[in-house]
Every structure is written in C-alpha cells, then in structure tokens.
Write a structure and sequence with these properties.
The complex is a heterodimer of chains A (312) and B (256). With 312 residues, chain A is mostly helical. Chain A has eleven helices and two strands; from the N terminus they run H-H-H-H-H-E-H-H-H-E-H-H-H. Chain A has one domain: ABC transporter involved in vitamin B12 uptake, BtuC, CATH 1.10.3470. Chain A has a two-stranded antiparallel ribbon. Chain B is of the alpha/beta class. In chain B, 36% of the residues lie in helices and 24% in strands. In chain B, strand 4 and strand 5 form a beta hairpin. The chains are: A mainly alpha (312), B alpha/beta (256). At the A-B interface, helix 6, helix 7 and helix 8 of A face helix 2 and helix 3 of B.
Chain lengths: 312, 256
Amino acid sequence: MTLNRRLIATALLLVGLGLIPIIAKSIGYLFLLTLFTRIVILAIAAVSLDLILGFGGMISFGHAVFLGIGGYAVGIAAHHGYYSALVQWPIGLAASALFGLITGALCLRTRGVYFIMITLAFSQLVYFLSVGIDSYGSDDGLTIYKRSTMGGLIDLGNKTTFYYVCYASLLLCLFLAWRIVRSPFGRVIQAARSNENRLQVLGIATDRYRLVAYVIASTMCGLAGILLANHTDFISPALIHWTRSGDLMIMVVLGGMGTLFGPVAGTIALLVLEEVLSTITEHWMIVLGPLLLLMALFKRGGLSALLGGRKA
Amino acid sequence: MREALVEVVDLVKTFGGLVATDEVSLTLHQGEIHAVIGPNGAGKTTLISQLSGRLKPSGGKILISGRDVTHLPVAARSRMGLARSFQITSLFFDFTALDNVAIAVQASRGHSFRFWQDVTTDEAIYGPARQFLSRLGLEARAQVPAGDLSYGEQRQLELAMALATKPRVLLLDEPMAGMGHDESAKIIALLREIKNDYAILLVEHDMKAVFALADRITVLVNGAVLASGPPESIRGNPEVRRAYLGETTPKEGGVR
C-alpha cells in the first residue's frame, strides 16, 4: 500500500511537471517555464547521481564534472561550427561515458571517504583544466549562439518545445533507472551497498558491476549537461565547480536516497526554495542550511520518507 | 579412494612474527564432514579465510578438484563451488530474509549483467529462494528484514544462503554459535541429511555437535595440526585431551 502511495506521488509529480508549460502560459508567468526547464534538467543529473549514491552507496562528490563534459561537448562543437545534435549529443554522451569509465576504474578501487575525496579531485582537475584553456573561454566561459539542431524536425529554440524535450529525457532516464533498479544488475548494485564482502563470497565480482553502474550514471549526467548548455546558451567552468556537485548531493539527500521519487522531488524542492528565498534575502543559504540540518537529523529518508513505508 | 574435492598442502600464514597457520595439510571429500577443532586462537577462522580466498596464504597450496586456486580471488573460488558461512553473521541486513536468499540464488545463475529483466517477479529466482528458506524453517519470516531477525534465525539464514549458491564445498564457521538447543539440533539434523551432496568443513565449538556429525576431525593448536583422524581416535588421543578437550575441566587445565 505504501508502495502504491509512492507510485501515485511519483506519477502526480511527473504529470504536474508535464503541465508546467500550460500553467506558465495561462497565468502569464513565463519565468516559471525557465525555472522548471532548469529543474527538469538538473533532476536528470540528480536521478543519475542517486543511481550510484542512493542505490549503489558510492558517494561521489564530483558528479557535476559530467554536467561539464556534456556541456562543453556542445559548447566546443558549436564553437567550431558543428550544431547538429547528431554530432554534439553522441560526442557529449561518449565523452561522459569514457571519462566515467577511466576515472571510475580508478576511484572505485577506494571506499568510503577516499572515494569521496578522489571523485572530488577528478572533478576539480577538469574544473581547472576548463579554467586554463583560453581558446574555449577559460574563466569567462563560452557563449553558444545556436542551440543543437535536429534537422528541422524539432526546434530547440522554442521554449515550450525545449521544455518537452527535457521532460521526455527525464521520463526516459527515470524509466531506465526504474528498470535497472529492478533488474538482476540493480540487485547486485544494491546488495553491494549493503554488504560488498558477502556478495563476493556469493561469487559476484562486485567491482565490475559498480564500474558499469558508475558509467551509466556518468552518461546520464552527461545528457543533463548537454541539455543544460542548450538551456543557458552558455558554458563556463562554474558548471563543474565542486559546489555544483554538492548541490546535486543535496537534491538527492533532500528528496530521499535510493528512491526514484526522491531526486526529482529533491531537485524541485531545492530550486524552488532557492528561488523563493532569494527574493526575500540574498543570504538565502542561512535559511536553507538549518533546513537541511533538520532534515538530516529528523527525517533521514528525505521527502520520500514523508510518504511513509519502506524503500522501493 | 575417492578423489579429494579440496586439498590443502603445507599451508602457512604468518602475521608478522605470529604463525597463524603452520604447515597445515588436510583434504575434504564429497559426502564427508571434516571438523576442525582447537582452542581459541588456534587459527581455525584464519584457515577458512584462506580457503575462501579472503586471506592470502604466505606459503603452501590450495587445490579445488585438483586445480591450484591459491591465488584466485574470493568470487572466482565461489564460482568453482565454494560457499562459506561466517562466524560473525554477514548478511544484507536491509534486505528481507527472502531477498537475501534470492540474491544468493541469483549469484548461482551466472553473471548478473542483465539490465532489463524484472527480478522482483522472477520465479526462477524466487521459487528456489523460498525452497531454501523453508528448508531452514524460515518461511514464515520471509518478508522480515534480515537485520530484524533473531540471532539464531540469522545463523539459519546464513546457511540457507550458503546452500542457495549450489556449492560443492561448504565452509561452515561455527554455524551453531549462539543458537538455542532446539535450533542447533535442527541444524545438526539438516547437515546430516544433506552431507552426501557436499564436502563440508565444519569449525565448531560445540563438541557434542562435532562428535555427532564429523567423519574426520583435525585438531589445530597454535596454527599447527596436532592430530587428525576419525572421531574415535581423536577422542582417545591423550595429547588432544591434554591440549584441548581437557581444558574444559578446570582441574586438568590447572595441571598444564
């Protein structure tokens, strides 16, 4: 029953997100569409992080690096005159997957706090690389003058269209994550979080599974990066900064780790809160901080725990 | 004579200056329960850890079906048919009892790089899982998180998981530790019932269980084999009595 409650809550949330353009138009508050485009994109990143952090117990503190890689793939391709999504997107996804594979193979040799530190180190490495490369704007970033083109079929320049492309991407990622979590592969990932040593004694070489999960999450976050660059028409090293990785973690923890409802709800909560509080005071972090603290102390399961029941 | 399933040859393990395993040799045959006994710190768990691959031996060899596995990792040995239960209960505590066995069944069915199959409704996994669970008498507790089971139940679940991997060799590290009388009687009956299908290495402190079950007993003292043989010869061995069996009566212990 509690499972159904969570399913209903997730469905309502997704239907609500689907109606945003209509709501925004009818109340004449188009700014809402921009905010929620951003929310939907970052929700993809949060879902991808939750796959490894919540379900897999791999606490990555450098996940935003994949936002950067996806984003820079679009920006750099556009800078050289390649606008087709058929060029930009596969490059962005492949680069994210490859970077995830290489760094993951190294990071996953460590556990616990070392894993946190080494993922952070790799993301900061890329951050300083992006700051250092003058031909791609270094500190100032790179303006993207034209969004990814889709052969005239879909115009990403149209705000509503773009929103629905992002929305469809989120649905796709959630569906993939849902299938993965229930699959034999997903079982292994969750069991490895619970007791990795025991899993090895059962004959499962956990390293490979964890690495594949890491690469899947990297690629998914790369997609979010691709969309984010198109959304802001601009990329800069700020995309990769460690505070961005922290934001993603907060979204997952706030919403509820190890659930699919959690990262989506957490992203909405964090960005809406940020939006509302920052109109009241520029020091909105002063309110947000204690709020997170209370959440961590009293409601471990995040927003999704408010729905009751066990993890599903 | 039947070929040995597991052969341990001159196994040595040192931790710095401490010799935890001192040239131990023993064999496990199918259909046989080989008990390893010895006082605390004799190196019993260290021996099992080396057999399962958790610890690397400093010297000597371990063979499974004649194949040298001394340098193979834990998971590879497990795929060769080795299953281990832990002295300190090791479960997926946030999974239900049934899901614990289900992941063990899943592990025995080859690799798990299957991303699209819905395991939660897969009878090929949950059917056998329920069978192993009820074999240990836990069917009523199937949906209880493993962390909420009683200690004795957790030990039983541990054994159900070991069996669910369809092993040929069972390494049981004090499977009855912390169990009540009825529970251990149940495990003794179960082990006797299933032993024909496996080669079993049993480390156990409960001497009644050991002498009721073992076909062969090896006595370890300070990491070395003091004696090895059928239960009658061990029971009558004066050295063993002095070194180990006798220690339970304070009088003889005092004489040492």
